[in-house]
Amino acid sequence: MNYTYITLALYFLLMLAIGIYAANKSTSSLSGYMLGGRKVSPQVTALSAGASDMSGWMLMGLPGAIFVSGFSTIWVAVGLVVGAWANYKLVAPKLRIYTEVANDALTLPDFLSQRFHKKDGVIKLVSAVVIIIFFTLYTSAGLVGGGKLFQSAFNLDYQLGVFVTMFVVVAYTLLGGFLAVSLTDFVQGVIMFVALIMVPIVAFNHFESAETMMNYSLEAIPTFSSSLDNLTVLGLLSSLAWGLGYFGQPHIIVRFMAINSVKNIKTARRIGMSWMSVTIIGALATGLTGVAYVNKFNVELKDPETIFIFFSNVLFHPLVSGFLLAAILAAVMSTISSQLLVSSSSLTEDIYRVYSKKTLSQKHLVNIGRVCVFVVALVAAGIALQPSSSILSIVSNAWAGFGAAFGPLILFCLLWERVTYNGAIAGIITGASTVLFWIFVPVFDDGSTLSSVVYEMIPGFIISSMTIWLVSLWNAKPTKQITAEFNAVNQTFLDSVS
């Protein structure tokens, strides 16, 4: 009896069952489908935000990066932890208050248009286009993870793995919307947490001591002190800059919009940061013990990003292996479902509803949202069909795109009353354009791009911030009504933390 397949089948059935449950609870209106009616608990908010954030790169990309970059990967982890904490502190509370005040905004583009009292303005279209472009790319990274899982763990066709992953995620996302995504993320977050504690501990037990394990690791990667000696300022900043991306990730900050009370964000932060700290340490430990194990036992590992899969199959009983492989699927699908829903929200609420000439019922909008989920998933699957794609590289590109396009603007909108509508539009365009230029335009003689010098997040974030600031100062001040609304949000925030 193949226990691994049975475990995975039970996992798939659980996800679909949650989708059916959520479909009966929260899909009668667009607000329920897109934000769960703003009734999500802090526990579900925290693990949902974490699971949708970390995705397949946590269990595959980050451990694999240890093989390539060694201890320098730690600085990426440090940047992520600091950025996530700052996101909870600077963005979460005020965004939760502001989006409800701003005519119950359901999406990030909707909030931005309401923030400047430009209902269905150009900013909706511009931000929705940016979301759809980068999320289609981001979703493809998750599907690459699913394809690699099926190929490496079961010797199945890579393309088949991509489409199986897509089918299951699309099924429960179509059925239950945001509530289904949040509840499945919660379950998936628990699975990821347990797996990232279990795997490195069991792998470590194959060595006599920590010193022995490190000796085997250092046969392939430089020592920590050597990595510090070789670390450049630009290299350090590029790694830490991952943390800046949190302020602009629509699939993460939408969780803050849906929590049941702004006062519960503190609880969500404590749970979320504890979960994140343990799982990131577990991912790094998986990569480090993986390097040592491969060297000690002379294992041929074709793709370093599959070290977690390798450990799952080699070190555990098939029943446990099924659970651990389900953890990878959990990481992959939690992020894909969140990204599909946000993309669908933008297509439905920010493009279709705005430019449709008809009076649209809530049921009709929900159905359109479901169609959009399927369309975005199909396009992302097409991109993911190339098996040579690196999960971490795709994620880093999309992460930078969102971080530069929306990160500075979200901070300005919540912290500076002087920001203007034209400044906001200019910031989105320059941030996204800078990232795309940095990634794709070959500027050096050997055909390499500027991203080989410094992570595109840094120039994108700086240029977007400067553009917002300068254009806003050049424009006339916001109206008294906008300023009064900004001050009211700040007062509500102060009251909530007092």
TrEMBL record:
Subcellular location: Cell inner membrane; Cell membrane
Short name of one Pfam family: SSF
InterPro entries (UniProt xref): Na/Glc_symporter_sf, Na/Pro_symporter, Na/solute_symporter, Sodium:Solute_Symporter
Gene3D superfamilies membership: Sodium/glucose cotransporter (1.20.1730.10)
GO cellular component: plasma membrane
Domain of life: Bacteria
Membrane topology field: Multi-pass membrane protein
Keywords (A to Z) from UniProt: Amino-acid transport, Cell inner membrane, Cell membrane, Ion transport, Membrane, Sodium, Sodium transport, Symport, Transmembrane, Transmembrane helix, Transport
Described purpose of this protein according to its UniProt entry: Catalyzes the sodium-dependent uptake of extracellular L-proline.
Protein name: Sodium/proline symporter
